[in-house]
Design brief:
The protein has about 180 residues and is an alpha/beta fold. It has 2 domains: about 100 residues, Roll (Ubiquitin-like (UB roll)), CATH 3.10.20; about 70 residues, Photosystem II 12 kDa extrinsic protein (DNA polymerase, domain 1), CATH 1.10.150.320. Helices cover about 20% and strands about 15% of the residues. It has 4 helices and 6 strands. Strands 1-3-2-4 form a 4-stranded mixed sheet, with helices on one face. A two-stranded parallel sheet has the order 5-6. Strand 2 and strand 3 form a beta hairpin.
């Protein structure tokens, strides 16, 4: 399938994946609209060692495991890698399934994972407040402000956006710059 094209949808909800999953088809009502009474949705891109990589629309609150299931599951012999299958999805995120960690690497350096406590890099777009709180110099209040900023702005596009979070000045930013990623 050429780059930039979407996985074709099968008729009805569920596409070829899990219950409630719908494959996203470019040009076929490409925006997701939530109307009163309809369930909230998240749009995620699932790639890596899955049977049918693509962009999928899932119910808000869905887990990484649901996104992988929506993509047809892992290919034969593939393992999920260091990815946390129980983590809740964030709208607009990319899930790279089955990416093996390099020898000696932390699972935190694998795309789609967030952090191994005490090691690696924290992904600002997927980390929980508890994981951010584990960073040196970041307490629970600042960690929650980072999560609130992420939710209000649709995620971080760059690590430099941390400077826009109340309570993170130049010194604190310099301390954490190498410990976070997007």
């Amino acid at each position: 399938m050429p780059p930039g094209s979407a996985t074709p949808a099968s008729p009805g909800p569920g596409a070829d994946g899990g219950p409630g999953a719908t494959a996203y088809v470019a040009g076929a009502g490409s925006s997701t609209v939530t109307t009163p009474g309809s369930p909230a949705r998240v749009v995620v891109y699932v790639t890596g060692k899955v049977r049918h990589p693509g962009v999928f629309v899932l119910a808000s609150g869905a887990r990484v495991a649901d996104a992988i299931e929506a993509a047809g599951g892992l290919r034969k012999g593939a393992k999920p890698g260091a990815i946390n299958l129980a983590r809740r999805l964030v709208d607009g995120e990319q899930i790279v399934a089955g990416s093996p960690a390099a020898a000696g690497a932390d699972s935190a350096s694998v795309p789609g994972s967030t952090m191994v406590p005490g090691a690696g890099v924290v992904n600002l777009n997927t980390a929980t407040a508890e994981q951010l709180d584990a960073l040196p110099g970041i307490g629970g209040v600042i960690a929650q402000r980072i999560v609130d900023y992420r939710n209000a702005h649709g995620g971080f596009q760059s690590v430099d956006q941390l400077k826009e979070v109340p309570g993170i000045g130049d010194r604190k930013f310099a301390e954490m710059r190498d410990k976070v990623s997007v």
